[in-house]
Design a protein that fits this description.
alpha+beta
C-alpha cells in the first residue's frame, strides 16, 4: 500500500490571487542531474506522470504553514504550495529543504536573500537578531516606529517576525490594548493600531494562528478599530457580537468544525471589512492571509461532506412538507453557501462533492423549493441550480428526462425554471437573464454526450421540444395574435427579446427539431409581428431570427417563407422606417443583400415577383436592382437553355491553350512597345484573334438576333405585369405621392456610400463621384457590356459574367439608362 505520509496536493497561485489545484500525488526528494541539485518531485497518483519538479534553491524562501503546508515562490509571480495529507510527511520534506539550505528545521520560514546595500547587509550580519523594546505603554511609540522601519526590508521583516513569535509578544500587546481601552488612552490605541496592522503585513502563518485563536481574535479586531485617520473608532466587535448571528440550521456535533466555521467567518470579516485596502506595494504581503482563509474553507467543506448524518438531516428537512417556511429559508441559504464554498475545492474533490449532493437528492429538493412563493428562497435555489448546471449539465438533463415519465409537464423542473423566467418581477429582468443562460447551457448540443448505447442530444432535444418548448414560446404566441403586438411595454418586450434570443440559438444549433416546430406552429410569422413593435431592440431581434433562418439556405425554410409571404412584414417595416438611416434600415438591407450575394434563387424570384414595385424606387443602394438583375439572368437561363452550352463552348475557346501558344503570347506581350498601342486598343495575341474573329463571331451574331426577338417579347410581358408578378399574394401596399417622394431615386450619379438617403455625402445626396452605371466598348463587330461597378458577384460567377458581357446585348431597361 502506498505511504500516505508523502501524499500531497500541488497548488499554484493564479493572477487573481486564488489557489488552483494542479493534482494529487506523492512527493519525494532526489538529486536531479539536469537541474544540478536536490529537487522536490511530485508524481501523480493516477498515472505516475510528473506533476512537479522543483530544485531546492539555497536562496528561495520556503514557508511551513499550519503543520501540513509548504509554500514558496519559484519566480516573481509564480507561487507554489504543497498540501500534505499527514503532518509527518510535511515534517520530513521540511527537514530535507532545511538540510539543503543549511537551516534549522525548527523555523517556519527560511530566510530570504535580498539585494540590499553593503552597509545594511553588514548591519544585519553583525546583529544575530532583532531586539524588541519592552512591552510597556511608554514604549509603544518606539515599537510602532520599529515595525514601520522593518517592513520595507524583507530580511528585517523576517527578523521582526521571529522576535514577535519567540517572545510571545502578541499576547502582551493585547493585554496592553485592554489597559489602553480602559484608560481611554487614544494615543496608545493609535500606536497599537499601527503595530497590529504591521504584524499582519509580516505575512507569517505562525503569527496568524496566534492572532486568530479563540482568545485573541476579538482583541485583534479591537486594535484595528482605532484607525488614527478616522475621527471616531469603528464598532466591528459590536457588530460581530450583537448583530452577526451564527445560525445552526442543522446541529453540528463536531466542536472542531464549529470552531473552524467561527474562525473563518471572522478572518474573512477582517480581510474584507477591518483591514484597510492594501496599497499596490502591500497587496502581496497579505498572500498568507488569503491562503489561510482558502484552506480553512477546504477543511470545512471536507468535514461537512464526511458527516453523513448532517447531510441526510439537511435534505430530509428541505423536502419535508411539514418544515416551516422560515426554517426552509435558512436551510436553502446554508446549502447555497455550502455550494459556494465548494468552488475552492480541487476538481477531483468537487466531483465527489456534487456526486454526494446528487445522491442525497438535491434536484428533487430544488424542485420543491422552486415551487415556493418566497422570492428570496427561489433566488437562492436558482443560484444552487446554476452551480449544478455549470458543473454537470448532463446530470440535470438525465434527471428531468426521468421525472417526465412520472410527472405532468407543468411540474417538470425545466418548466418551473421557464415559468420563473417568464414571471420575473424585476423590471430589469435580472433573474430572467440568469435563467435564460442556464436554459441555453442545457439545450446546447456542444456539451451533450454521445455514447454507444444512447445519444443524449437526440433524447433530450426530443424531450425538450415535446414537453417544454410550448411553455417557452407561450408568451410569444399570446402576444402576436394580431398584426401588432398586443402588449408592447418595456418589460414584456425585454422578455420576448430573451425568448427570441434562445429560439435564435436553437435555429443555429438544432436541426430538424426546431425546423419542424417553426413550420408546424408558424413561429416565424408570429415573430415577424414584432417588427411592428415600438421598441427597436425587439424588432431587431425578430429580424435577427429571420436572418438566421435565411442564412441556413435550407429549401424547407425557403418554401415555408414563400408559401406564407413572410417577406411582407419585412418590406412593410422597411417602408415604415422611411428614409431614416438607422440599424433597422441596415439590418433589412443586409438581409436582402445576403439573398442577392448568395444567389438564393427561390427567394430572389419570390422577392422580385411579389415586392419589386414596392422596392424599385430605392436606389441609394443597389441591392434591389441587383436582385432584379439576378432574377432576369435566371429567367434568361430558363428561357434559353442553349445559353449554357454556348457558354461552355466560349469558355473552352477562351481558356484551353497549349503550353507553346502561351509561351508565344507572353513573349509577344513583353516585346510590344507601349507607345505602339492606340488608346483603347487591347493587345490580343494572333492565336486568340483568329479564334475571336473566325470561331466566335458567327455564334454571337446568331445569338444576338435571337436575343433581340426575345427582349421584345419580354418587354411586352413585363409591361403587363404589376407588383404581384406571376403570383397574387395577400400583400397589398398603397403608394401615395408622399411615399414615392421620400423614396424617389436621386440623380443617376448618386453616391453609393452608406448614409442617410438625404444627408450630404450619404446615399441619395447627389454626389458626382460615382462611376457610370454601364459602358459599351466597340471594336470591330464586337459589342460588350461592362458590369455595373457595384455588382459584387461571387468568384465562381466571374467567369460566366465575363463571357456574358461579350455575348449578351442590352435589355431595353438598360438601353434606356445608357441613352440617358
Amino acid at each position: 500500500m502506498t505511504d500516505t505520509r508523502r501524499r500531497v496536493k500541488v497548488y499554484t497561485l493564479n493572477e487573481d490571487r486564488q489557489w488552483d489545484d494542479r493534482g494529487t500525488g506523492h512527493v519525494s526528494s532526489a538529486y536531479v542531474e539536469r537541474l544540478k541539485g536536490t529537487s522536490l518531485l511530485v508524481r501523480a497518483e493516477s498515472d505516475g506522470s510528473l506533476l512537479l519538479e522543483s530544485k531546492i534553491n539555497p536562496n528561495t524562501a520556503y514557508q511551513k504553514q499550519q503543520d501540513t503546508l509548504i509554500v514558496w515562490s519559484e519566480a516573481e509571480n509564480y507561487d507554489l504550495a504543497l498540501s500534505f495529507q499527514e503532518k509527518a510527511g510535511c515534517d520530513e520534506i521540511w527537514e530535507k529543504i532545511c538540510q539543503v539550505q543549511g537551516k534549522d528545521p525548527s523555523v517556519d520560514i527560511t530566510q530570504e536573500v535580498v539585494d540590499e546595500s553593503e552597509e545594511e547587509r553588514f548591519d544585519d550580519m553583525s546583529s544575530p537578531g532583532l531586539e524588541l523594546p519592552p512591552c510597556e505603554l511608554n514604549r509603544l511609540e518606539d515599537l510602532a516606529e520599529l515595525v514601520a522601519s522593518s517592513l520595507p526590508s524583507p530580511l528585517r521583516r523576517e527578523k521582526l517576525a521571529l522576535a514577535v513569535e519567540n517572545e510571545g509578544y502578541i499576547r502582551k500587546l493585547l493585554e496592553l490594548f485592554r489597559v489602553c481601552e480602559d484608560l481611554e488612552n487614544h494615543e496608545g490605541l493609535h500606536h497599537l493600531y499601527e503595530i497590529i496592522k504591521g504584524i499582519f503585513l509580516l505575512n507569517r502563518t505562525a503569527l496568524f494562528e496566534v492572532m486568530f485563536s479563540e482568545e485573541c481574535i476579538m482583541d485583534v479586531i479591537g486594535c484595528l478599530e482605532f484607525d488614527p485617520a478616522l475621527p471616531q473608532p469603528r464598532r466591528h466587535r459590536e457588530f460581530l457580537i450583537k448583530t452577526a448571528r451564527f445560525k445552526e440550521v442543522i446541529p453540528i456535533s463536531d466542536p472542531e468544525l464549529r470552531q473552524k466555521i467561527h474562525q473563518t467567518y471572522r478572518v474573512q470579516y477582517i480581510q474584507d471589512m477591518v483591514l484597510p485596502t492594501p496599497s499596490v506595494f502591500e497587496e502581496n504581503m497579505l498572500s498568507t492571509l488569503h491562503s489561510f482563509i482558502f484552506f480553512n474553507k477546504v477543511e470545512i467543506v471536507g468535514m461537512l461532506q464526511d458527516d453523513e448524518k448532517f447531510l441526510t438531516d439537511l435534505f430530509a428537512q428541505l423536502t419535508d412538507e411539514a418544515t416551516e417556511d422560515d426554517k426552509r429559508h435558512e436551510l436553502v441559504n446554508f446549502l447555497k453557501e455550502f455550494c459556494a464554498f465548494s468552488q475552492t475545492l480541487q476538481p477531483q474533490n468537487r466531483d465527489a462533492f456534487f456526486k454526494t449532493l446528487s445522491n442525497m437528492g438535491i434536484l428533487p429538493a430544488l424542485e420543491v423549493i422552486l415551487g415556493m412563493d418566497d422570492v428570496q428562497v427561489r433566488g437562492a435555489a436558482t443560484d444552487i441550480f446554476s452551480y449544478l448546471v455549470e458543473y454537470n449539465p448532463s446530470m440535470v438533463r438525465e434527471f428531468v428526462m426521468q421525472e417526465s415519465q412520472q410527472n405532468d409537464d407543468d411540474i417538470l423542473l425545466i418548466n418551473l425554471i421557464i415559468e420563473h423566467m417568464i414571471c420575473d418581477t424585476d423590471p430589469e429582468l435580472g433573474g430572467a437573464v440568469q435563467l435564460m443562460g442556464l436554459l441555453r447551457t442545457l439545450v446546447d448540443p456542444e456539451n451533450m454526450l454521445a455514447t454507444a448505447n444512447k445519444t443524449e442530444k437526440t433524447e433530450f432535444l426530443s424531450f425538450f421540444y415535446k414537453h417544454c418548448m410550448h411553455v417557452l414560446s407561450a408568451p410569444l404566441l399570446a402576444n402576436t395574435t394580431e398584426e401588432k403586438p398586443s402588449k408592447d411595454d418595456f418589460q414584456t418586450s425585454q422578455l420576448l427579446a430573451l425568448i427570441l434570443e434562445l429560439l435564435t440559438f436553437c435555429v443555429e444549433h438544432h436541426t430538424y427539431h426546431i425546423k419542424n416546430y417553426i413550420i408546424n406552429k408558424d413561429i416565424l410569422r408570429r415573430v415577424l409581428v414584432l417588427t411592428a413593435s415600438q421598441h427597436a431592440f425587439l424588432a431587431l431581434c425578430a429580424l435577427r431570427f429571420m436572418r438566421r433562418i435565411i442564412g441556413l439556405k435550407d429549401e424547407f425554410y425557403n418554401r415555408y417563407i414563400m408559401r406564407n409571404f413572410l417577406f411582407e412584414p419585412v418590406v412593410k417595416a422597411f417602408l415604415s422606417n422611411g428614409s431614416r438611416y438607422n440599424l433597422m434600415n441596415s439590418a433589412i438591407i443586409e438581409m436582402f443583400e445576403y439573398v442577392r450575394v448568395e444567389d438564393v434563387k427561390s427567394l430572389t424570384a419570390h422577392i422580385v415577383e411579389n415586392y419589386w414595385k414596392a422596392l424599385e424606387d430605392v436606389d441609394y443602394v443597389q441591392t434591389f436592382k441587383g436582385l432584379k438583375l439576378r432574377y432576369e439572368q435566371q429567367r434568361e437561363r430558363q428561357d434559353n437553355p442553349k445559353l449554357d452550352s454556348m457558354r461552355s463552348i466560349l469558355r473552352n475557346h477562351r481558356f484551353r491553350r497549349d503550353a507553346r501558344t502561351l509561351e508565344d503570347e507572353e513573349e509577344m506581350w513583353f516585346n510590344t512597345d507601349e507607345d505602339d498601342l492606340e488608346d483603347g486598343e487591347a493587345v490580343v495575341p494572333p492565336s486568340d484573334k483568329m479564334k475571336s474573329e473566325e470561331d466566335l463571331m458567327d455564334p454571337i451574331s446568331k445569338f444576338m438576333e435571337r436575343k433581340k426577338l426575345k427582349d421584345s417579347e419580354d418587354k411586352e410581358v413585363l409591361g403587363k405585369s404589376g407588383l404581384s408578378g406571376r403570383q397574387s399574394p395577400s400583400f397589398k401596399l398603397s403608394f401615395s405621392g408622399s411615399t414615392k417622394s421620400s423614396l424617389s431615386s436621386p440623380p443617376s450619379s448618386a453616391s453609393l456610400n452608406p448614409g442617410s438617403p438625404g444627408s450630404p455625402g450619404s446615399p441619395g445626396s447627389g454626389s458626382r463621384n460615382s462611376p457610370p452605371a454601364a459602358a459599351i466598348t466597340t471594336k470591330g463587330a464586337l459589342v460588350g457590356l461592362v458590369d455595373y461597378p457595384d455588382d459584387d458577384d461571387d468568384d465562381e460567377d466571374d467567369e460566366e459574367e465575363d463571357v456574358e458581357s461579350k455575348e449578351d446585348p442590352l435589355p431595353p431597361s438598360k438601353k434606356s439608362k445608357l441613352s440617358s
